[in-house]
Design brief:
The protein is mainly α. It has one domain. The chain is about 80% helix and about 0% strand. The protein contains ten helices and no strands. The chain has helices at about 1-10, 10-20, 25-40, 50-60, 65-95, 105-125, 135-145, 150-175, 175-180, 185-210. α6 crosses α7 (about 135-145). The longest helix has 30 residues, at about 65-95.
């Protein structure tokens, strides 16, 4: 378990080695990682928040250009969600064909469509800040046939907000001695805080469904 978490908890060390090894080509690598983490539903385990925060910290040291990071990674995040949406739109309906399948029932698709009709716009933005969920949200939006124009608008807003928040967070706070010396702990805190809104939302809806005494 620790071996799996090591690249995330020590992303600053790994990114530093990549910068030394590949130089300017590290921008392309960062682009591909962010695109894959948001665009390929089979790769939700790739680093997202932690990688952005670490990249911002290295930009503050002059190892990376902050403007290049913001522009390039924002494009990667937006294109990733867009690709994921269309994969869901094209593949999803073929998967959900059986009315009484064990895993892929037609009713699941109908429920997804109804869910996005009600919560879709908020979900697309908030999901950006929740690990794993952000990988599945655009895929499910595609399956649920959310209007692409609506999806694109909130995809852009969410993508820009996500990149700016974490890259600039690393840029301004990543090299503070307390943060730098406890980077792994900071990453854990970031992950916990990222998941917290989703947990609160789930608990809120469960409480609403519970009958009052």
């Amino acid at each position: 378990m620790l071996a799996v978490l090591a690249p995330i908890l020590h992303i600053d060390q790994y990114l530093g080695m990549l910068i030394q090894e590949f130089g300017i080509m590290v921008y392309a690598l960062l682009f591909l990682i962010i695109f894959a983490e948001t665009g390929l539903v089979v790769l939700p385990f790739l680093p997202g928040d932690s990688l952005l925060f670490a990249a911002g910290a290295f930009a503050a040291l002059g190892s990376l250009n902050i403007w290049t990071l913001l522009i390039l990674l924002a494009i990667a995040a937006i294109l990733g969600d867009t690709a994921n949406y269309w994969i869901g739109a094209k593949v999803g309906p073929r998967v959900f064909t059986k009315e009484h399948g064990i895993l892929f029932r037609r009713e699941y698709l109908d429920r997804t469509h109804a869910f996005y009709d009600k919560y879709g716009t908020k979900t697309i933005i908030l999901a950006r800040f929740v690990p794993i969920v952000r990988t599945f949200a655009p895929f499910v939006a595609g399956i649920g046939k959310m209007r692409y124009v609506t999806f694109l608008a909130y995809n852009v807003i969410g993508g820009l907000a996500w990149i700016i928040f974490f890259v600039l967070g690393g840029f301004y706070f990543g090299n503070i001695p307390l943060v730098k010396d406890n980077f792994g702990l900071v990453i854990i805190v970031i992950i916990v805080l990222s998941v917290l809104p989703l947990v609160c939302e789930i608990c809120y809806h469960k409480l609403k469904k519970c009958p009052t005494a």
